[in-house]
Amino acid sequence: MSDVESKIYDIIVEKTNIDRAKLTREASLSELEISSLDFVEIVFAVEEEFDIEVPYNANTQDQDFKALGDIVGAVEKLVEERG
């Protein structure tokens, strides 16, 4: 597990109180029952933690993030691009 993935999971646990053992790249946001409000809070916390801007628009319910692996992959790419 990468540092990015671990930090994202820490943020999710902090914001939702979901058991960390349930967090895998394959886990879908819907099966984890992450609400849209919780997801927005997670996005803000991830942006702050990594000093990036995640391309997510809560008004359009962007479907790019269906599973945790989608989020981890996007953040890893943004962190890499930032240098």
UniProtKB/TrEMBL annotation:
Keywords: Cytoplasm, Fatty acid biosynthesis, Fatty acid metabolism, Lipid biosynthesis, Lipid metabolism, Phosphopantetheine, Phosphoprotein. GO terms for molecular function: acyl binding; acyl carrier activity. Signal peptide: none annotated. Its main location: cytoplasm. Transmembrane segments: none annotated. GO terms for biological process: lipid A biosynthetic process. The modification O-(pantetheine 4'-phosphoryl)serine is found at residue 36. Pathway: Lipid metabolism; fatty acid biosynthesis. The keyword Ribonucleoprotein does not apply. SUPFAM superfamilies: ACP-like. 4'-phosphopantetheine is transferred from CoA to a specific serine of apo-ACP by AcpS. This modification is essential for activity because fatty acids are bound in thioester linkage to the sulfhydryl of the prosthetic group. Carrier of the growing fatty acid chain in fatty acid biosynthesis. HAMAP family: Acyl_carrier (MF_01217). Belongs to the acyl carrier protein (ACP) family. This is Acyl carrier protein. It comes from Rhodospirillum rubrum (strain ATCC 11170 / ATH 1.1.1 / DSM 467 / LMG 4362 / NCIMB 8255 / S1).
